[in-house]
Every structure is written in C-alpha cells, then in structure tokens.
C-alpha cells in the first residue's frame, strides 16, 4: 500500500481535481484505490457523486477514532475506487484533538491498523484542505510521499517554499520516510505566454521533481464535478482526462522507484 498526500496550502490550484482524476485513472488500470477527503468543504466527495446525506461515516470519524478505515470507506461509481468522505464536522477537529496524544498520527495509526487486518488498497490518496493545519499534517505524517499541484499562473512558486519547509519539518519530526513525490503543473493554458514561462521557471527551479505531464485547462474537467463524476468518466477523450491518465502512469513509475529506494 502506497500513501500519497496531495497538498498545497493555496486554494484553487487543482488539488481536488487531481485527487479525483488521479484516483480514477489509477483505478482504471486495476489498482485498488482509496481516496480520503480531508477538506471540510467535501469537494472530492461531491465530485465523486457522494451526496451529503450519504456521508454517514466520514474522515472526521476516522480522525476521532470513532471508525476504522474499513467502516469509513464507501464504494463509488468508479470500480476499484473507494472514498472516505468528509463533512463539515472536520472544522472542529483541530480544537477537539489539540491536546490529545498522537494527534498528528491519527491517520497513520488508522491506516496501519487497516493494513494489519487486511490489505484492501494499493494506493491511498489524501485530498488536503488549503491550509497547513493539523489535517494536512496528519496526511503528511501518514504518507509515503507528497504530491503538489501548482497552478500555471504568475504566483505559482509563491508559497511553495513554505510548503516544502513543512514537508521537511514533518520528515524531521513525525515521518522520516516522507518523500516529495513530485509537482504537477495544472490548468495550463497554451494560448497564454505567461503559462509557458511559468512551466519553464518551475522546471528550472524544481528540476526532476516536476512531472513531464502538464494538465491543461479544460472546460470538460471543470464541468465534471457538477455531474458528480470524475472528468475521466464524464469525458474520457478530453485533453484534461488524457493528461490525468498520463500522469497516473508517471505516478506508478515514480512510486515503484520510491518504494524500491
Ligand atoms: P483545490 O482543491 O486546490 O482548491 P480544485 O481542484 O477544486 O482546487 O480546482 C479549483 C477550480 O478549478 C475548480 O473549479 C476546478 O473545477 C477548476 N479546475 C481544476 N483543474 C482544472 C482544469 N485542468 N481545467 C479547468 N478547470 C480546472
Ligand atoms: Mg480542494
């Protein structure tokens, strides 16, 4: 089981879109995937067609030790893709467990317990909120690696050093095994010269960490969540879906290397 946390403290950079579509693309090639929605907004849950009323057991229950991974994971319309949905309860979590022992290890403990009982998943992806709060720290403490979506815009690199520093701190204190999985550039608009410059700058600055695959800005990708479907189910042929399928094969290759190292 490989655990990948999708994080960036900026909102609107494509975390949730990447989480849903990467999870779907991995499932489509036969990987057993669990997506954990850690954002109180629940966009990943909605985007996978799980209505609020169907979120009886949620990531909040997992983090407060009220439910196990098996109890919280529900099937989605995508074969081989399960989801632990989120609810607004997550907003109170930080206060609730702020003085608890092992509060940063709630997710890691839950996943390890799950792995001991049964190995149901090949990949676990975590969709983080736009913040470096206890939820994101939990996701990093539980992860093998962190995948960072960066939007192809002028301020793309702003905030990246803070994020990388947080990864470093988690590695020093909570999870020495944590790798930077890579950076995926999102919402690329080929008609915009600035976007191409951003791609060059990010590659120059971050080198090999940046995935070859760049996700294009694509209206089909932004429409899909309102139908409760991953873009890959909504319109598999659109350029955005094709890019996420290409990203999935890069992720599988990179995970093999990281797991072997
Ligand atoms: P985050 O989870 O980082 O806040 P989202 O994945 O929710 O970001 O994306 C922010 C907005 O941008 C959403 O409305 C989403 O539909 C849209 N979006 C994301 N990726 C693309 C894309 N490749 N093409 C077009 N719209 C996109
Ligand atoms: Mg999101």
TrEMBL record:
Gene3D superfamilies attached to this UniProt entry: P-loop containing nucleotide triphosphate hydrolases
Database matches in SUPFAM superfamilies: P-loop containing nucleoside triphosphate hydrolases
InterPro entries for the chain: AAA_dom, DNA_Partitioning_ATPase, P-loop_NTPase
Pfam families for this protein: AAA_31
Domain AAA: 1-179
Function: Involved in chromosome partition. Localize to both poles of the predivisional cell following completion of DNA replication.
Protein name, per record: Chromosome partitioning protein ParA
